[in-house]
Amino acid sequence: MIGSIDPVLLVASLMIASTPILLAAIGEMVVEKAGVLNLGVEGMMIVGAICGFIAAVKTGSPLAGFLGGALAGAAMAALFALLTQVFQSNQVATGLALTLFGLGLSSLIGQGYNGIRPPATARLDLGPLSDIPVLGRMLFSHDWMVYASLGLVAAVWAFLRYSRAGLILRAVGESHDAAHALGYRVVRIRVLALMFGGACAGLGGAYLSLVRVPQWTEGMTAGAGWIALAIVVFASWKAGRVLLGAYLFGGVTVLQLNLQAAGVAIPVQYLSMAPYLITILVLVVISADRSRVALNAPAMLGRNFHASR
Amino acid sequence: MTESARQTLLTIEGLTKAYPGVVANDDVSFAIGEGEVHALLGENGAGKSTLVKMIYGLVRPDAGRMVLRGAPFAPPQPSAARAAGVAMVFQHFSLFEALSVAENVALGMEQAPKQRELAARIAQVSEDYGLPLDPYRLVGDLSAGERQRVEIIRCLLQDPKLLIMDEPTSVLTPQEVAILFDTLRKLAAEGTAILYISHKLEEIRALCDAATILRRGKVVATCNPREQTARELAEMMVGATLATPSRAEATPGAAVLEIGGLTVTPANPFGTALRDITLTLRAGEVMGIGGVAGNGQDELLAALSGETRTEPGAIRLKGKPIGDAGPNARRALGLLCAPEERLGHAAAPDMTLIENATLTATIRKGLVSGGFVRWPAARRFAEEVIATFDVRTPGPEVAARALSGGNLQKFVIGREVMQSPEVLVVNQPTWGVDAAAAAAIRQAILDLAAQGAAVIVISQDLDEIMEVADSFAALNAGRLSAPVATQGLTLERIGLMLGGAHGMHEADLDEAHRHSHPEGAA
Amino acid sequence: MIRLERRPTPSRFWTGATPVLAVIATMIAGGILFAALGKNPVEAIRTIFWDPLFGQFASYSRPQLLVKAAPLILIAVGLSFGFRAGIWNIGAEGQYIIGAIFGAAMALAFYPMDAVIVFPLMVLAGAAGGLAWAMIPAVLKIRFNTSEILVSLMLVYVAGHILSAMAFGALRNPEGMGFPGSRNLQQYPAAHNAELIAGSGLHWGTVTAFLAVIVAYVVMQRHILGFQIRVAGEAPRAARFAGVNPARLTAICLGTSGALAGLAGLFEVSGPSGQITPDFASGYGFTAIIVAFLGRLNPLGILLAGLLMALTYIGGELAQLTLALPAAAIQAFQGMLLFFLLAFDMLSNFRIRIGRPEGAQ
Question: Nearest CA to B213 among B17, B42, B33, B10?
């Protein structure tokens, strides 16, 4: 029964299943590194999913779809930025608002797009690599977005570690008062980080509706945005570990789907809970070490900045 | 060098900056020469910070102009000021704890070199000026004195023409101050002008060539501080003669607070552990606990207030073990505290004074009955504190954040004092408070002791401790020295008790390197 | 250049005025949205805000107001405690579901016994279910410092799957001819949460909601617990200094909101909804977040906000029927309302000045 699960296919579909969460989580990590907590990932993702879907269907080009998704996510993030960075609203409340608004808006825009198939996203031709037995099918025969998301993780890692702009971004997240005193534009840097995070979430959403599912259904993110937020905590705000976390959760999701398909004698509903329960479990394990969280979390996370005299 | 031989570096003409309700700087003019150490003297709120923020490009003046080396100077932002050769060492708020020394330095530079090259230059400069520092350590792990070195080195790496120092000695031991002054004199001899902001008169007399005195945003005098007495300077600064707090001769009574073997590990990764603290406090005694910031003051207050729980027997109040009791249980027994941080710790910024009075007084003032708050009684108590301690406020309905630092501090201290504590612990009671309010607070502490209460004053201000305390103990890296009587205590002796110069000697540079750990280890 | 300047004391006027402004702004923005959908904006707004109360079918829709408002108010009052203290329970939807399951399970355990004790036992079970579900994030936060935001939200999805498992499994109606869903409690008199006054929409849930508003108001204004909650939210360090035990406060705030959400679920399943079905969850737990903020986290405000939000639900349904306005439009509309509210909130803490900017941002 369980023997009917093909490990090669499992790994291959794991990479697909992880990519939306990976994209959203890496974007959110940059946002949190700048000291902002945007709980609206779910909302940005789902708006990205529908906008990307529509863009792809209308143009027939998946690339346009991904661009549309990223732009829509960034636009949602801009709304969040306006409220929290300019109007000084509470970040937790605003993030929740973004999610609630995004869910409503997406199903509104998505009227009439149910049951359509989007244009297929091209497989990246990796030549001989794809022909390697087992490994080729497992790792080297995916669409280009999978590899782009891996590249993005590497780019974020290098940016934060080696570039001056990355240093400034981390500094703003550590102490906005100190950064301000040195003349850095805290609000501008945070807005840019938010837009990047929104674009990533939108991209993740678009991947969901264009590749992973691939079609549009209301509420299709089903908590993926929230899991992305949990992965950032799990990863202790480190890019490499975001990758690990996203693939871990992708693995759990794929495994439970495979178990369902294989007809394991556990009701479907209990298998479907697994990703959420494991998210909680992982959060518990990571958070239990208080001093480590305190050391790794950006010190200004969730705090608003207003330049006083 | 004589005054006339100096080239003028920076001229300030008629600078004015107004904020709603207050003119921070009103037509301020003076000049600084090359290689001159120029003091900017004034009380808290006199407008010193606003003035230097305008020179550093953080704030734009409403009117007036500046000329730097003959050219008009109006920096729109700090990077422009830095490019023009102006550097600033901040009083606080400019370092990043979770970043390394080298990263912190890089953030303060316009064209930062690669990390490795920068580390080499940091090592070079720190050797040249006798300021040992390991570029790879996290700033959060450094002492206050070491943190200041980071800021100074950050400035020196840019070859500044003008170095602004905002209250640099408030975090240093007397020995560290002496070493800092050597560094500053060396810099001045090399031609760097220094704008030195302080309210410590003796330091200014020892270091500075000229002084500009600000009062309520206006220049009231420019003088050579060496030709003035400290008293004359103080009167220029305050504008009135101040009464020194009077103290009655006290005979200490029975022991009320006994701390024995108090050891606390910090919750915060950059906190200080308290190690084996032992002291005995008698009724009517004021004990001063001195020490440089970050040596365990906050942790000690938290352990005494009950925010941190310890072994029951580690703290005894009138013989009763209270180490594991919470804040309100301790208040019920007569142990009250006033933390350093006014906004957010001692008081809730957005809540009214009535609510803030209720914060700590529910038990001793009986402000709660049957679980319900007696708001009328709370209002009466708040009004009483406001009247007795001369807190300037439109009324008790005002939010705490609307009060000036001095007025809020009077309210916070008054709230505790008026609950007739048996033991009162205050941390930095006059930090950032104007002279008149500071005098009133010190007098209240002395009066309380005269009525038989025991008081612990944790303070970085050694003058304050000498003024109010009967005994003195030094807190250094979480350890407390044995208390000694303040009578006949010299500043040198205190300095030695505070742990000497924190390895400010060049010989310690090697040791600092040995402690280094690779980048990213944390 | 427009600049924000922090007020020394928050403005009382604007604290009260912002929700009104937000509603007006949402009507305008919503009108634009509806116009974009090709609907007459004036007619759409009238259908949503006016017709349910005074229109042609008002006699039918007016009682619905209380039916819809009761769970929203009940949940939002509970949430407001935690939101004030900076403890973010955003999983009320899950607690609502579990409360309903517990309550329904209790009823079905007694089926078909006709005893007065059944309904009170169901009420207890519903509250206990919501409480238990909310105590999971509370205990994890207290013991392991886990984010209550993420845990409570994850548990919404878990609860959703449990709901589906129950509707297909343990609680399925044995006489339901294989369809998912439990027995209909409306047809089990001992368990039915019927209208107390026919045609009013007033059932036990509404009564409980009004009671909750009154109790919450007294606790917030007069009781030391309300004071501690407010201090903990405004200045956590000051709260610890004042002797507030953060763990206790976390347990109280999450527990209270969980129990109230559980009650809301119970009253819904035993009354208006009648049965456990896979699609029992209707989003009240999330909409209540908007209600809590719109009501300024003040119990009386929440009462008004809950009624208003119920109105948009009913009006939305009406607009769906008469104008073919998509159901999702109302959801977007409600989200927009929260946005405008948060944006206008700035007016109570800041003054807007028009003048020259500072040197750096």
Answer: B42
Position A238 confidence tier, pLDDT thresholds 50, 70, 90:
very high
pLDDT attached to residue B249? 64
Predicted confidence (pLDDT) per residue in A43-60, tens digit = 999 999 999 999 999 999
Cα–Cα distance between B156 and B161 in angstroms, integer?
Answer: 10
Q: Where are the domains of chain A?
A: 2-296
Q: How far apart are CA A98 and CA A81, in angstroms?
A: 11
pLDDT at B123: 87
Picking from A107, A226, A269, the nearest residue to C162 by CB comes out as A269
Which of the other chains make 3 or more beta carbon contacts under 8 angstroms with chain A? B, C
Asked if residue A231 lies in contact with residue A21, where contact means CB atoms within 8 angstroms, the answer is yes
pLDDT of residue B67: 93
Q: Which residue has the tokens 């009324």?
A: B395
Residues in CB range of B228: below 8 A, 6 or more apart: B205, B236
Phi, psi of A120 (to 5 degrees): -70, 140
CA distance B427 to chain A (A): 24
Locate B500 and state its tokens: 């000497």
> Which residue's entry shows tokens 């995004």?
A102
Report whether CATH 1.10.3470 matches the domain A2-296: yes
Q: How many CB pairs under 8 A join A and C?
A: 155
How much helix, strand and coil, in percent to the nearest 5, is found in chain C? Answer: 70, 5, 25
Q: Between A79, A100, A107, which is nearest C334 by CB?
A: A100
Task: Name the percent of chain B lying above pLDDT 90.
Answer: 46
Q: For residue B198, what is the enclosing H or E element?
A: strand B193-198
CB–CB of B77/C360 below 8 Å? yes
In chain C, list all ranges with CATH 1.10.3470. Answer: 65-325
For residues A178 and B93, is the Cβ–Cβ distance under 8 A?
yes
What is the rounded average pLDDT of the residues C90-95? Answer: 96
pLDDT digits (tens, 9 = 90+) for C15-25: 888 889 999 99
Give residue B506's pLDDT. Answer: 35
- Among A18-32, A110-124, B41-55, top mean pLDDT goes to A18-32
Token digits of residue A176: 């906005």
Could C243 and B347 be called an inter-chain contact, meaning their C-beta atoms sit closer than 8 Å? no
Structure confidence by residue, pLDDT tens digits, B381-415: 999 999 999 998 889 999 998 888 888 999 999 99
CA distance A35 to A226: 18
Residues of B in contact with A181 (CB under 8 A): 58, 78, 90, 93-94
- Phi and psi angles of residue B60, each rounded to the nearest 5 degrees, phi first: -100, 135
pLDDT at B516 over 50: no
The neighbouring-strand residues paired with B288 are B457, B472
- For domain C65-325, give the fold: ABC transporter involved in vitamin B12 uptake, BtuC (1.10.3470)
pLDDT score, position C359? 39
Residues of C in contact with B59 (CB under 8 A): 358-359
CA separation for the pair B21, A130 (Å, rounded): 72
Hey, what domains does chain B have and what are their CATH numbers?
8-238 (3.40.50.300), 255-497 (3.40.50.300)
Chains that touch C (3 or more CB pairs under 8 A): A, B
Helices (H), ranges, B389-472: 405-417, 435-450, 462-468
- Per DSSP, the three-state class of C263 is helix
- List pLDDT tens digits, range C281-336: 888 999 999 999 999 899 999 999 999 999 999 998 888 888 888 888 888 888 88
Do A175 and B95 lie within an 8 Å CB cutoff?
Answer: yes
Contact status, residue A22 vs residue A241, Cβ threshold 8 Å: no
CA angle at C36 for the pair C33 and C41, rounded to the nearest 5°: 65
- Whether the per-residue pLDDT at B252 is higher than 70: the answer is yes
The shortest CB-CB distance from A171 to any of B78, B99, B112 is to B99
- Position B503 scores a pLDDT of 36
